[in-house]
Design a protein that fits this description.
The complex is a heterodimer of chains A (277) and B (205). Chain A is mostly helical. Chain A is 80% helix and 0% strand. With 205 residues, chain B is an all-alpha fold. Chain B has helices at residues 2-30, 34-49, 52-62, 72-97, 101-109, 114-129, 131-144, 158-168, 173-201. The longest helix of chain B has 29 residues, at 2-30. The mean pLDDT of chain B is 78. The chains are: A mainly alpha (277), B mainly alpha (205).
Chain lengths: 277, 205
């Protein structure tokens, strides 16, 4: 997972002598045993509660179940992508405000960022779910979940983008100006493309957060993975099994996204290292 | 007011548990025993990636099927501390990884014991460089406690209360605005304190 040469985990320990090696071996065996016992206890708990019964798990052998889960997954992905796009648009706007030359615009940008960062997603969701209809505005369930999720993530994205813009070397900007480029094209054609490349890993991590937040879609009954899981449960009466499978699906998706983010970050560092040589 | 206190209480307790658990997991992850390392990494991957709502629902609605019944408060607390614990461990690991290997070698060459190394070199630096991430985590923990609104908790937390007011009476925008401000103010205060501590203890590299 980490580079072997600079792995502090290993650097902490001296090369072990025979006695230490024996101790480590014993320790490894003991902890391994403890883990196995732990897993066994969990399984026994399942068994004793009758949750390993095939009737709870049989539904996963059916094609329709998976198709239904797949549909929910599509809903989740759609919501996450839409919310992600909105987040980006909002975050980009706040970021422009924050780096503006006008003091008032900067203040507004900062206020927006602090506000969206400090308020829980659920509060935004309830706002769109309960208050917005009271005001006479009708939104689809899809918008009711994507808008609040996007708003609550936008503040962090703005900060991430800003850190990217700040990380672009000043010389780039100066060089572009000396070529006679206008301020706007300097930003759009020189600074921002580089800034964006810098923040790609952080943006992918942000997508993970957005995806997690879309699980609240059941509040507004938008058919995402979680909501479809609920329907499956009421059809098959196997709550534990369905929720566990759904949790595993979520964990896998997010794990892959995080891995992708790590990969992009590493690739970028390699490119930077190669350029420096 | 009481709702705000509930939110604060949940946040404080959850963060304390998360921190202790996070340190524990981090110790496992740097220990020389492979199974412990594996368990630590596994824990972090699971709880870093599970949606909070998913975990809470499993704790509240699925665990009774395993004859494990906790109060709503306990469930929220567990959900709101297991997840930040994973992030806490990640930040501490980043702090530890940022220590140059040369320092360990230097410490060993002047004859420090393992315990001395951990106490005087690793822990101080790891803690110092993770002050800012940890303050962000504290804010994140507070936001996670909004999950409590998903279960009937007495006394309700801030988000739960607002949702309750709005479903039972037309309180409208005011309740939302006030509670958003309360959350926000708490977050800003935490952030400021974090910055202050960070300025004092930051190590310039």
């Amino acid at each position: 997972m980490r580079d072997a040469r600079t792995n502090i985990r290993d650097a902490l320990y001296e090369a072990p002598g025979p006695r230490t090696r024996r101790l480590t071996a014993v320790g490894t065996a003991l902890t391994l045993a403890a883990l196995v016992v732990l897993i066994a206890l969990v399984i026994r708990r399942f068994y004793e509660a009758g949750q390993l019964d095939s009737k709870y798990w049989a539904l996963f052998a059916k094609y329709t179940t998976w198709r239904y889960i797949g549909k929910g997954l599509v809903g989740t992905v759609e919501a996450a992508l839409m919310a992600g796009t909105l987040t980006f648009a909002l975050g980009f706007t706040y970021m422009l405000l924050r780096i503006s030359r006008l003091k008032a615009a900067r203040a507004v940008g900062t206020a927006l960022v602090e506000f969206t960062r400090g308020v829980p997603t659920l509060l935004f969701i309830y706002f769109f779910f309960l208050v917005v209809p009271q005001l006479g505005i009708k939104l689809s369930a899809f918008l009711k979940i994507t808008l609040p999720v996007a708003i609550s993530a936008s503040g962090v994205v703005a900060e991430v983008l800003r850190s990217g813009v700040n990380a672009v070397p000043n010389g780039q900007r100066e060089a572009a100006y000396s070529l006679g480029m206008r301020e706007r094209s300097v930003f759009l054609k020189v600074v921002f493309p580089q800034a964006f490349r810098i923040v790609i890993p952080a943006m992918i991590s942000e997508l993970v957060i957005v995806l997690k937040d879309t699980t609240f879609a059941y509040v507004v009954s938008f058919p995402d993975l979680m909501q479809n899981a609920k329907v499956l449960i009421s059809n098959y009466d196997s709550l534990l099994a369905v929720y566990l499978v759904v949790a595993v699906i979520y964990i896998l998706i997010n794990y892959l996204l995080n891995k992708a983010s790590d990969f992009m970050a590493r690739r970028r560092n390699q490119v930077k290292g190669a350029a420096a040589v | 007011m009481q709702a705000l206190l509930t939110t604060w209480k949940l946040t404080a307790v959850a963060f304390a548990i998360a921190f202790v658990l996070g340190v524990l997991i981090t110790v496992m992850r740097v220990s020389p025993l492979k199974p412990l390392r594996f368990f630590g990494d596994f824990y972090v991957q699971i709880f870093r990636n599970i949606p909070g709502a998913c975990l809470l629902i499993i704790l509240v609605y699925a665990f009774p099927y395993l004859d494990i019944i906790w109060s709503y408060f306990t469930c929220v607390l567990i959900a709101a501390s297991l997840i930040p614990a994973a992030f806490c461990s990640e930040y501490l690991m980043t702090g530890i990884n940022a220590i140059p290997v040369g320092q360990i070698e230097a410490a060993r060459s002047i004859g420090m014991t393992f315990a001395q190394m951990i106490r005087k070199i690793v822990v101080p630096q790891a803690l110092r460089s993770s002050v800012l991430p940890l303050t962000n985590l504290l804010v994140a923990t507070m936001l996670t406690t909004a999950l409590a609104s998903q279960v009937p908790l007495r006394p309700a937390d801030l988000t739960g209360l607002v949702a309750h007011i709005n479903t039972h009476a037309v309180g409208g925008v005011t309740a939302f605005f006030i509670s958003a401000m309360l959350y926000c103010a708490t977050a800003v205060v935490i952030g400021q304190i974090g910055n202050l501590i960070d300025k004092k203890v930051r190590i310039l590299r």
